[in-house]
Amino acid sequence: MHLVTFLAGGQTRWGAARGDTIIDLNLARAMMLASKGAEAKYLADDLLGFIRAGEDARDAANETLEFLGSRTIDGIVFRADAVKYLAPLSNPSKVVAVGLNYWDHIREHGGDPPAYPILFPKFSSAIIGQGDAITWDARMTSAVDFEAELAVVIGTRAQRVAAEEALDYVFGYCNLNDVSARDLQFDEKGARQFTRGKCLDTFCPLGPYVVTRDEIPDPQNLAIRSILNGNVMQSANTKEMITSVAKIIEFITQGITLQPGDIIATGTPAGVGHFRVPPVYLKPGDVIEVEVEGLGRLTNHVE
Fold first, then answer.
1. To 5 degrees, how large is the angle CA 239–CA 178–CA 295?
2. Domain shared by 39 and 165, yes or no
3. Residues 146, 233 within the same domain
4. Most confident of 35-39, 40-44, 114-118, 286-290
5. For helices 55-68 and 25-35, what crossing angle results, to 10°?
6. Would you say 256 and 177 are in contact if contact means Cβ atoms under 8 Å apart?
7. Rounded CA gap, 17 and 275, in Å?
8. Is it the case that residue 190 has pLDDT exceeding 70?
9. Across residues 45-73, what is the average pLDDT?
10. Domain-terminating residue out of 48, 65, 86
């Protein structure tokens, strides 16, 4: 399933993207139950609630989509180009990001690879969705960079998980742009304001949807790229990760419990703006896109 949060008819809804349509899964489920003479019930209040509801809810959603088939029903099935995509998950308990996790990024950055994953937070207040604007106060930063990343969405509470079992705890995957204010991140006078540089408002674009793990059998073999104003800036494959998705989950959960709906940003490959000569930073009017194979394309503009 390709799961989305969207705005239609003045209401925030969630559901499934299928072809060129978006299905309100709550309303579709209620209709299906009513047609069978059962009490009409919704699946969940939002996508986070759906993830937390576990396998039974996922089975119910698949049953609903099968019942609906290819029918188009006003108020339940919407044209994808007629809705406003929102961030699929705007309220996870945490976003954990990994730094310096691609071999080619190490080479452009200089130095040796880290002995173990470098972790930092992306606050949920930074999350925006497909088509939303990346903004910042020019008095605060003048070196805003882009970073295409594979994001992992946790489906089951994970504590002290072994790498061999780690992917069983994954709900799905999505695109993430780890927008970074480099002059804050590397500010020696401010004692390296790493978290501040990574967590400014709008600095965590996410989407356009979450793809369930059954559709992404191997997260370590996905093409990943960023595109700035039509020009490819980053182009790599997740097999270049230094620490795999499974081992990242193992590492995090030895001391930090991951909850359903939590997001892991798994690092970015080479080609970011900061290490180019001369550097290429985002500016008003730019359009930045992130594309991970099988996960659609996340597009944001800069204001």
1. 55
2. no
3. yes
4. 286-290
5. 70
6. no
7. 37
8. no
9. 96
10. 86
Check: pTM over 0.70? Answer yes or no. Answer: yes
Residue 241 structural domain: 95-302
Residue located via tokens 């999505």: 174
Looking at this protein, which amino acid is placed at residue 9?
A: G
Domain end position, chosen among 86, 108, 136: 86
Of 249, 261, 140, nearest to 202 by C-alpha is: 140
Token representation of residue 135: 């903004």
Cα 12 from chain centre: 19
Distance CA 303, CA 295 (A): 25
Which CATH number covers residue 165? 3.90.850.10
Q: What pLDDT, in 10s, does the model give residues 237-295?
A: 999 999 999 999 999 999 999 999 999 999 999 999 999 999 999 999 999 999 999 99
Q: Are residues 284 and 205 in the same domain?
A: yes
- Alpha-carbon span 246 to 152, nearest angstrom: 10
Residue type, 53: A
Phi, psi of 107 (to 5 degrees): -65, -40
User: Which of 116, 2, 148, 107 is CA-nearest to residue 65?
Assistant: 2
Q: What is the mean pLDDT of residues 66-91?
A: 95
Residues 69 and 137 in one domain: no
Same domain, 32 and 102: no
Residues with Cβ within 8 Å of residue 120, at least 6 apart in sequence = 96, 97, 99, 194, 195, 198
Q: Which among 25, 10, 8 is positioned nearest to 212, based on CA atoms?
A: 25
Number of domains within the chain: 2
Q: Are residues 54 and 138 in the same domain?
A: no
